[in-house]
Write a structure and sequence with these properties.
Layout lengths: L1 E2 L4 E3 L7 E7 L2 E7 L4 E8 L4 E2 L12 E4 L3 E7 H10 L1 H26 L3 H18 L6 E3 L4 H8 L3 H13 L3 E4 L2 E4 L2 H8 L1
Antiparallel strand pairs: 1-8, 2-7, 3-6, 3-8, 4-5, 4-7, 9-11, 10-11
Helix pairs in contact: 1-2, 3-5, 3-6, 4-5
Amino acid sequence: MPYPDNHVITPQGAPFEALYMVRGGAVKQIQTSGLSHKPTVVDIYWPGDVVGLEWVGATYQDDALIAGSRSFVCKIPYGLLTVFSLKQQSVQKKLLQKTSHHLRQRKLRPSLMQNATACSKISAFLLTVAKQKHQQHYDPTHFTLPLMQAELASYLNLAPETVSRQLKALRQANIIDLQQRHVTIKDVNQLERWAE
C-alpha cells in the first residue's frame, strides 16, 4: 500500500496485529516518551526490511511507524503469517534471518556512532541513503532525505544546530547540494572521506 511522506502507518500504542514489509521508500520508527513528549527516531527501515519483529509477543506496539518519504509498505497480519509459516518452513527461516540481521545492525549502530564526529555521522548517513537508493535501482546521487533535520539530529544523537551547521559545511565544500530535503551528492569521494 502506498503512503505519502510523513503519513502515520501505525500509531504508538496501537495493538500489535501485523508486521510490515517495506517495498519502497523508507519507514521511520518513532518513539515519544518522557515528560517532554519529544519524539525520538529509534530506527529507519529500508526496502526489504520487515518492521515490527520486536513487538512479537507484545500486546501493544511501543513505537509509531511513519512513512519517511513516499513509501510502499505491505501489511502482513501476524495471525495469518504464523499459520502460513508453520506450513512453509522457508518463511519461518527467512523471518528469523531478518530478525537476526536487524538485531545485529541495531547492536552495531551505537558502537559505530559513539566515537564518530558530527561530520562523519552525517556523511555516513547520506552515504547510507545513497546506497539504499542504488539498491532500489534509483540514482544514488539524487534523493529526498527520509528524515527532517530535527529527526536526523535525534537519530544521530546530535543537536539540531549541529546538523544544520554540518549540512551547511558540506554544501559550502561543494560536496552536496541541499534544497529542503532534496540532496544531490556532487562529490562521492569527498563525502566518503568526510564519513571516515
